[in-house]
Amino acid sequence: MRVIISAGGTGGHIYPALAIINKIKDMEPDASILYIGTTDRMESKLVPSLKIKYIGLPMKGLDRHHILNNFSVLKMYKNSYKKSIKIIKDFKPDIVIGVGGYITAPVLKAATHLHIKTAIHEQNSTPGITNKMLSKKVDKIFISMKESSKYFPKNKTFFTGNPRSQEVISEKAITKKELGFDEKPLVVIVMGSLGSYTINKEEVKIVEENEKNMYNILLVTGEKYFDSYKNIKVPNNIKIVPFEKNLTRILKSTDLIVTRAGASTLAEITALGVPSILVPSPYVSENHQYKNAMTLVNNGAGVLLEEKDFNKDNLVKLIDELLSDKKRLANMKKNALSLSTPNSCDVIYGEIKKLIGE
């Protein structure tokens, strides 16, 4: 099988794409894979480092605040579309798959123009403009959350879950002891790979004033905010790191996570059954993180704490309430697991094979 897969911009798009690639490689070691991403976002370094054939194309999203900037965006789109036509003709894929991000627009548009089989994967409960546009032309649409089905044509939309769900289950746990903690409950606080300025100001207060030592905290600050803690005395029940590449392995030993509500993050914590305090980013398009979070909240798997209400006192109160209620935590874990799709990669691979007639 020959596959072009395109995704870019954030880990929420890139890691599901990589999960699909890993599944294809597991099933078909001789499969030829080409990843098309951007020239300047995180996939441009990450994907080649994994020894996956990579082509970068310049692409940005529309600027909703400065309309005149969109002339350059449209020029990028046209150039990337033309280059995609040539790339697809040269590579001769059986299928082209888009897993989110602006780069998928010219790539999938070119594939449909050339009458190549196509599929897209939507991670969020509310799809972005790119997938809404592409849904009219592609052959199959895979969705992570059942709520998003209403935005797409029913006859070609399939609930598959997020492929990250299946991938994280097989990872080996990192124990509390290996992290240097005792067996008290472990709370992980992480606001995405980049961190958050607004949230970080309150996190500093938590570190400065944490005297209870009733639980352990792993605080992932993001590279930009790590220096905020260099002159602070850190209690021995708190560990602070700028980035944690093995976070999903740590989550297997985590009792409670405080996190954003990106789609891949939610896929990971539901797959592992981690109770959560969800702080959706208010800065994303169509407020999709809030809608993602409410899927967990409405099903008793998480608790909502909006950024406007995020402060040291509110967070510590919530953590104390949840960790002191073992029955509620157990129910949150059970409810989270019920929302996961532990065979997501298998389902997607099966639908791909059907689409290309194998």
Give a written overview of the molecule.
This protein has 358 residues and is α/β, with parallel strands linked by helices. 41% of the residues lie in helices and 16% in strands. The protein has helices at 11-27, 43-49, 70-91, 104-113, 129-134, 163-169, 197-209, 247-251, 263-272, 288-298, 312-323, 326-338, 344-355; strands at residues 2-6, 32-38, 53-57, 95-98, 117-122, 140-143, 157-159, 186-190, 216-220, 238-241, 256-259, 276-278, 302-304. The strands form 2 sheets. A 7-stranded parallel beta sheet has the order 3-2-1-4-5-6-7, with helices on both faces. It has a 6-stranded parallel beta sheet with strand order 10-9-8-11-12-13. The mean pLDDT is 91.
Give the quaternary arrangement of the chains.
single chain
Helix fraction, binned, reads: 40-55%
User: Kindly state the mean pLDDT as a whole number?
Assistant: 91
**Termini separation:** 9 Å
Give the beta-strand count. 13
Rg from alpha-carbon coordinates: 21 Å
Sheet with most strands:
7 strands, parallel
- Which band does the percent of strand residues land in? 15-25%
Q: Could you say which structural class the secondary elements and strand pairing correspond to?
A: alpha/beta
Given the C-alpha coordinates, what overall shape results? globular
Element order: H for helix, E for strand: EHEHEHEHEHEEHEHEEHEHEHEHHH
